[in-house]
Give the backbone structure.
Amino acid sequence: MKFKLACASAVLMFLCCDLTWGGALKNSFTKNKTEVESQDKETEKSKEETQTNEASSKSAEQTTTGQAQTKEVAEKKEIKGNPVIFKIGNKEIRRDEILADIKMLPAQLVQQTPADKLFDIMKRQKLMTYLVIEQAKKAGMDREKDYIQQIDKLKERVLFESYLVKELEPKASNEATLNQKYQQYLVEFKSGKEIKISTIALNTEKEAKDVINALNKGAPFDKLQKDKGLSALSENSDRYVPVSRMPEDLKSKFKEVKKNAITKEPIKIADAYHVLKITDIRDSKPGTFDEIKPILSQLILRDEMEKLIKKLENQYKVQKFNEDGTPEVASSEKKTPAA
């Protein structure tokens, strides 16, 4: 499937080459060709100089003409209706089909490309796509088992997502529901401490231990980070992390969790040895409604999904079994071991 998507992407890249790197390739080709044809280059240069001189003497006239052409383009009659762009046998491809394809393109590509050029590119892609698909059908590929299975899976996926969007999205974006969830978050919020951590990354354990010794003797952390650390891996974090979420093995690397504390020993992460410093510690506080609104929306989606699945399980009388085929025991039915 990835290979097929890659092929499709390659076709689109081929069509759009003039919009990106194609222009550079074209310039490179022109340069190489010009170097081979050096005599033609001199002739062309002389011709261009002559044309430039003539253009200078007629600049006022050309400016007026250019303005008139721009005005003519701006006043070009708006296209009415939905004209036919291609006729292939009895098949007609109309303008709105190509415009629909343009709407599926990334916004940046659409904004950076002149409308008429973009239409021509997508017009060509539409024709190529149609012809290749027709040829594939002629070869019987639309009746192959693999193709049918992929289409069935795609249909199921689209149905699954469409139903969830229709049923759950309105609830997850409802302001009253979001505010209710936020109030619940404020009630359940647990205060505590949160910290910011900076790191110095080094190539060897010995280098890291030397840095720790220097820090214990009062050397500035920032200076060692700049002079000794690997710039790609050493960093100063702006993000606070709740102490309650720190892994126990990380906590044990500090003598105590407090401001300016450094790790007692290097911590190996991938191929580097890290020396950590707690640069700040503060009391944690609940996020504002706007700050955590996206998280609240996700929590509502999760809750609503669980409710929906439970409802559907009852509706369709679902029976669950373990991997060995024995009936699955619901958590509410499991017996608590005797004390």
In short: The first helix runs from residue 2 to 15. Strands lie at 84-88, 91-94, 193-202, 235-236, 241-242, 267-269, 272-283. Residues 1-43, 54-76 have pLDDT under 50 and may be disordered.
